[in-house]
Design goal:
3 helices
Amino acid sequence: MSELHAANPTERLQALLRLTQRLTELLEEETRLFKAKRPQDALGLQDEKTQLANVYRAEVARTKQDPTRFATAPAQLKTLLREATQAFHAALSENGHVVNALKTVTEGVVKAIADEAARQRSAPAGYGPGAAHPSTPPKGFALAVNRTA
């Protein structure tokens, strides 16, 4: 589904309003899970969030191309959509801040692990004053990080 199914501007606006509200709910739930340090629980939200975001993006693009898409819809519905869009943008902003914070923490943990592994590789072999240092400098090592979060 990449377009809202509606017979007229009022139905189209109602559908976009529901879609915007649902996207906001998903973002708020994802943000809550991230703040609770349970990002793994947010994985179940991703498929629906991605599908709805694609429809939302396409509908906004169509509306920019044709501003008359909602021309005959009631003013009250337009006001509700405007308010829902503001709430969506607020939820999106907060989610972005939380995601960036998690990214920074995760990168810090990965760097600490890499630094510790490098330190252990360059440690002298054995103990005491006669401990031998490796004759060759330690070689780099590979570390893979999945950046899906």
